[in-house]
Design a protein that fits this description.
It is a single chain. Strand 8 and strand 9 form a beta hairpin. This protein has 214 residues and is an all-beta fold. It is built from 1 helix and 15 strands; from the N terminus they run E-E-H-E-E-E-E-E-E-E-E-E-E-E-E-E.
């Protein structure tokens, strides 16, 4: 169990937008629809009556990720690559996406997936992306209070054989740049959005932070 920020008995403040990262939510937590913009667009149905005999439980149906529309290109660079299998990898919102032109299908990594075959990924908007020298593995960095770096395999988007690796705890505000080393991609360098634009070097396979500079 956890207590979200600005909450009373676990209920987020409806007058403040909350990201999953800000709520420090565990995987599987469903983000509430909150905030003044949302409340301003919602109206109570004219024939709505509260009934004490009914229970207002969440519906049993769940949404399934079918397609990611869009592409974050207005404030990011080096964010679209070809994979080893000649598919297209890019990021949008909190998604890492691989597009297969031949079958006109997409595969995803993201946090809190409702769909089967979707591996755990970033929690908040991704701002950067890097391709491993083998052209199969990718890394994406996000914005947030404790931004994550997620390393995932484009050939195993469901994470059944090679689950994504998550690196976090060093950077603040956001991870704005990523790069694998040229020597077989053994190391991953990252740059943060803190005041000093701190740099970190990871042995990402071991999930080990080797060096930092700020």
């Amino acid at each position: 169990e956890f207590e979200p920020l600005n909450a009373s008995e676990g209920v987020p403040n409806p007058y403040k937008n909350h990201s999953l990262a800000e709520l420090k939510a565990k995987r599987g937590y469903k983000a509430p629809i909150v905030g003044r913009p949302v409340m301003g667009q919602m109206r109570v149905p004219s024939n709505f009556k509260v009934s004490i005999k009914e229970t207002y439980e969440a519906c049993k149906q769940r949404l399934k990720i079918d397609w990611v529309n869009g592409y974050r290109g207005w404030d990011t660079h080096q964010n679209l690559f070809y994979t080893q299998g000649h598919r297209v990898a890019f990021h949008c919102a909190a998604f890492g996406v691989v597009y297969d032109r031949a079958s006109n299908t997409q595969a995803f990594v993201t946090d809190n997936p409702e769909s089967e075959g979707v591996a755990e990924g970033n929690t908040d908007d991704t701002l950067c992306m890097a391709r491993h020298p083998n052209k199969s593995i990718f890394a994406t960095g996000e914005i947030g209070l404790r931004p994550k770096i997620v390393i995932w395999d484009s050939a195993d988007m469901g994470g059944t054989k090679s689950p994504p690796i998550i690196l976090e705890g060093f950077h603040q505000r956001a991870v704005v740049a990523l790069c694998f080393s040229a020597n077989e991609g053994a190391y991953l360098a990252s740059v943060g959005q803190d005041n000093d634009h701190s740099v970190a070097i990871y042995d990402w396979r071991k999930e080990e932070l080797l060096a930092t500079y700020s």
